[in-house]
Structures are given as C-alpha cells and as structure tokens.
User: What shape does this take?
Amino acid sequence: MPSYPGDSSSEIAAALDTLPARTPVSEVARRLLDLFTSGSIAAGTRLPPERQLAATLGVGRSAVREALAALEILGIVDVRPGSGTYLRGAASELLPQTLRWGLLIGERNTSELLDLRSGLEIYVARLAAGRADASAVAAMTSSLERMRQSASNATAFARADRDFHLALSAAASNATLVDLLHVVRSLLQVYDDRAVHATAEMTAAIAEHAAVLEAVEARDENAAASAMAAHMATASARLAKAAAPRD
Assistant: This one.
C-alpha cells in the first residue's frame, strides 16, 4: 500500500494549514476531507500517524482521532489497528460521503433542506427534458403507472414515487448533481415516507408527476422545470407538515 513514510510526510504538511487551538472535531474532519477529495492522494494510501497529523494541523491528537473515527463510519477511511489509517476510495468515489458529512455536521434545518431539494429537483427536470432517451421515458412511465395502481397502498405509492424521481435523475446525466440530490432526499426520507396518505394527496401527486413526464417526453425544458416547481411547492408543504413537531 502507498503511504507517507519518512520525508514524504512534507507533502501532507504542505497541504494542511495549521488550525486554531481548540478547533472542533468537525473542522478537523472538514480539513482532512478537503485533502482527501483533492485528488492528490491515491486510493489505498496509508496516512501519516495521528501524532503527525495533529502536529501538522496544530491540534490535539484526540481531535484527530475523533475526526478519523467519524470519517471511518462514513466510509472515507479504513482504520486498521496495528497497521494505520488508509484512504478507501478515489476522490470521485468519496463525493457522496463527503456531501452527506457536510450536511450532517451542520444544524439540521428541514426548511433549508426542502429549499435545496426543490432547486435541485427543478434543475434535474430541466436537464432530463433535454437529455432523456426512450429507456428513461419508459422507466418514468412505468413508475407513474405504479403510482396510479398503488393509490390504496401508501408504502407502494411512496416507492413508485421515489422510482420516478430516480429515473428522472438518471435521465439528467449529471452524476455529481444526482449524488447531491440523493443525499438531500435521504436526509428527508423519514418525513417523505409519511407525507402522502390521503387519496386526494395521491391524486394530486399523480397529476403533478404526469405533467413532468409529459414535458420530458415533449423535450420542453421550460415546461419540465415549471411542472416540477409546481410539484415541489405542494410536496414541500406536505413534507414540512410531516416534519412539524407533534403535540
């Protein structure tokens, strides 16, 4: 495995600026993530020991240890007792975990996540309208039909709804955008699963999805974005209601 032995450690020292004393663990993790996703360290590289990382960053070893432990949970690094800490994947492979970490360490603000999801979904719809091929349209059509057939089953309806959005995302052909949207969706999933139950809500959601699909089939980017904006307005309202504290 490649590593940073001996004088090669100057490479990582040059890449990491000294942090202020008493830096929160999250900031140490952020700085390490910046380095890991820069593309300058190959997958499988053994990182310098905790003591050396702590000295380079100007923080205590405990902060580095906790940051690495958190990054291990997220799948960014592999900590092997008696051997060292290794970078698990290439920069592009680490992106989804990095995005998830960045959102999770901040204050969870459902309203802001809903705003972010709406913007991403609208742009995805626009891209999909210009890029979707026949197989993507077929996948969305199939998901929409399953939504229609699942009006009496909230769980099946939610699954078909998710599949429609996944097919739409795939049609956008932008992996980075899809990764970010996947992270945001997953953070809202607990509310999404319980947001649509009433028949009237399902009927409205089906009509909204049908409008998006119609615009994608027509390759009308503006119409697709407008249709998704209308859907996101009602969907966000439902999610916000589901996320509201209950008495």
About this structure: The longest strand covers residues 77-80. The radius of gyration is 22 Å. The first helix runs from residue 9 to 15. The CA atoms of residues 128 and 168 lie 6 Å apart.
